[in-house]
């Protein structure tokens, strides 16, 4: 047993050393900038960051949009995953491929497509005007709504893929047994599907929430300077103000938010499973 562990450690050590030297060490040095001052080590940079009303607004907006995208992705993802798993194997593979197909397209191209759809002369406004629902085109671009739509379309496939993988590992007769025992579809979802697919929900929720918070292209294009998020604010701090301390603060906040989301989802899933 000891020899097997030693061999495994010897095999992992080169990769771990490479990752530490080329990734963890530079990131650690960058993040430490936010704690260093002329007088020594301090958290004053974080206090100063959150004292700004503008930064507070950007932080809350990022948290709100990330959580909203994750929640909506979970609702839509469960419906899509259940429909895919219920298909015959051949059709299931094709539908799974269609879900994964957008991930093979550049996020830049996918985001710019929304400019055509959501613009004042785009499909949405033309449809609303032609049907008489509105008289003049409305502004959808450069709003939180546009950023939400773009982020949802960008990261929804990750949630669906995670939930499909989790549902495929469910006992095939679990849902049928619950229905025979008199459970309605809401009870089946709450008491059968959710506990048995909690790992997929945790993985998908973490990927979607973290991705929505740290995405830059979509908020920059669809939100512009009117809908700043933490990642676009970080870019401004570095390229415009050359303020690496503020950039380090924002980077640390994003990392903490990502880990906190993962821990929170795990706690919710564990608490739900113990009931």
Describe this structure in words.
By secondary structure, this protein is an all-alpha fold. The chain has 2 domains: 1-41, no CATH class; 43-274, MetI-like fold (Orthogonal Bundle). The chain has helices at residues 2-32, 44-51, 53-85, 89-100, 107-118, 123-130, 144-168, 174-180, 185-196, 198-214, 217-223, 230-239, 244-274; strands spanning 36-37, 40-41. A two-stranded antiparallel ribbon has the order 1-2. A hairpin with a 2-residue loop joins strand 1 and strand 2 (40-41). Helix 7 runs antiparallel to helix 10. The protein is globular, with a radius of gyration of 23 Å. It starts with a helix and ends with a helix.
Key terms:
two-stranded antiparallel sheet, MetI-like fold, single chain, 2 strands, mainly alpha, 77% helix, 2 domains, 1% strand, 275 residues
CATH topology of the largest domain: MetI-like fold
**In which range does the helix fraction lie?**
over 70%
Structural class: mainly alpha
CATH class of the largest domain: Mainly Alpha
How far from one another are the termini? 38 Å
The oligomeric state of the chains shown is single chain
Q: Describe the main β-sheet briefly.
A: 2 strands, antiparallel
The DSSP helix count reads 13
Strand order of the largest sheet: 1-2
How would you briefly describe this protein structure?
Helices cover 77% and strands 1% of the residues. The protein is mainly alpha-helical and 275 residues long.
SSE order and pairing:
Blueprint lengths: L1 H31 L3 E2 L2 E2 L2 H8 L1 H33 L3 H12 L6 H12 L4 H8 L13 H25 L5 H7 L4 H12 L1 H17 L2 H7 L6 H10 L4 H31 L1
